[in-house]
Amino acid sequence: MTRIIGGLAGGLRLHVPLRGTRPTSERVREALFGALDARSLCDGARVLDLYAGSGALGLEAASRGAESVVLVERDRAAAKVAERNAEAVAKAGAARALVEQVGVAQYLQRTGRRFDLVFLDPPYDLPDAELEAALAELAPALEHPATVVLERSRRSAPVALPGDLELERSRDYGDTTLLYLGTRGTLADDSAPEPEAEATPEAEAAP
Questions:
Q1: Do the Cβ atoms of 194 and 31 come closer than 8 Å?
Q2: Cα 130 versus chain centre, distance
């Protein structure tokens, strides 16, 4: 079961596409949003969720006080599921997420919006060159400072970052790695404690 963990819609069950997506486990999402909340990065944020699937990451941010959320998902069936989830979260009083059924590259090339919190949870088999191109396309749409969270397999090769982004830190949970990227040392201050998820193989699995 995938659900919203905290905030206005906390406990709300989310629908999940029947196939074609690999949702982030609740354990990993809990650790991720604990780290973001420790720095108040969701509150009032303009959020972009790329390769959104069910929209669980972006909608969790909406529940925790994001000002606006855009969910980008190319697959038609998954985008419809994200629409249903966005509507349910909005009914709880959170911002109504906008769902864009389009490829990531196409969206980034045409958007005029700017974002200060971005999630990327691409398929683990996405070619590195395609991911690196997406990061390069994303860079002009980022505020300064901005935070970008990239989820990858722990077995993945290092990804080349555009000049606007730098790796602040990474955390491993089972086979899942979260890479925290910043445009201006956004997360360099580690003074706030970060919740740790137990590193087990289950942590990789589906939302």
A1: yes
A2: 17
Q: Which of 73, 174, 173, 191 is nearest to 121 (CA)?
A: 73
pLDDT of residue 3: 95
Cα–Cα dist 85/55, whole Å? 7
Q: Which residues contact 86 (CB under 8 A, 6 or more apart)?
A: 55, 59, 62, 69, 71, 96, 97, 98, 99
Q: How far apart are CA 157 and CA 117, in angstroms?
A: 24
- CA 75 centroid distance within chain: 17
List, in sequence order, every beta strand (DSSP E) within the chain: 2-3, 13-14, 46-50, 68-72, 98-100, 115-120, 142-153, 166-173, 176-182
Beta strand 142-153 pairing with 176-182: antiparallel
Instruction: Give the pLDDT mean for 46-58.
Output: 97
- Distance between CA atoms of residues 83 and 99, nearest Å: 6
Interacting residues of 44 by C-beta distance below 8 A, sequence separation 6+: 65, 66, 67
Eight-state DSSP code of residue 141: G
pLDDT digits 0-9 by tens, 60-116:
999 999 999 999 999 999 999 999 999 999 999 999 999 999 999 999 999 999 999
CB atoms within 10 A of CB 193: 9
Length of the chain: 207
- Strand partners for 71: 49, 99
% of residues, the chain, pLDDT over 70: 86
